[in-house]
Specification:
Blueprint: H1 9-17, H2 22-33, E1 43-45, E2 64-68, E3 72-79, H3 86-99, E4 114-120, E5 132-136, E6 151-157, H4 171-181, H5 190-193, H6 196-205, H7 212-255, H8 261-268, H9 272-280
Parallel strand pairs: 3-4, 4-6
Antiparallel strand pairs: 1-2, 2-3, 5-6
Amino acid sequence: MRFINPKTDIAFKKIFGSEQSKEILISFLNAMLYEGQPIIEDLEILNPYFAPRIRGVKETYLDIKAKITGNKTAIVEMQVLNVAGFEKRILYNAAKSYSIQLDVGEDYQLLNPVIALTIVDFEMFSEFDSVISHFVLKEKDYLVDYLSYDLELVFVELPKFTKELEELETLTDKWLYFMKKGRSLDTVPETMSAVPEIEQAFAIASQANLSREELEDLEHREMFIHDQRNAIQKAVSQAVSQARNEEQREIAKRLLNLLDEEAIAQTTGLSLEEVQKLKQQPSNSPSLGEDEV
């Protein structure tokens, strides 16, 4: 048995946002938001999954939007790529979902809390080791809550989750393992099938239950993500290489009047030809020792 990758946005929404996914989403949200406690008893998926009309293109900006117990709105997004402006986009979407609850002239008392849950496949907060982090509005010095969690941002950093199958204990552990490694499994492990909602999620994720068009959409999406990730890695590598080369050139410039060309090349890692070209250029900064005369 083969399973689709739940970390791609199309697959994520199909598993957690389809019309038959209500109980799955309740279990998943309780695991991510409330440490597995059955706080959410019911919900309504406000934007159920439909197969994309344009092949391989994400059909909505938010993966899942649901009205949960207590008249709260939960917006859920799976993000694989760490793109520029991503953090601000999360805050914007949460604030927008909070503000659009009111029509013109309606009382602010009608506003209900919004929780933005974002699952990411990269590390966001190196300051702490927690897989799941909660951000709310608080007073800066006294850490007093503002409006009692009316706007809450929750992040799940999958790379920080390192437990293996035999180490899974809680409902949260099992859902995190499903998200991170579910695709690599051949069968549903007994410890996970013991949770009916996870077993149902695996059933939806089974490639045998998908149409040819859906499988092609998922393949195109994964290829796109793969290409984008490679492009980001290449850009970072080029930036680091360029910065290192500039540093080597600056050191070489300051050594031009102190060492011969071969010694400079050996010291800085530049080629002899690069050193010779630097020597031919007019000097814009003093060499080592010149400012001490």
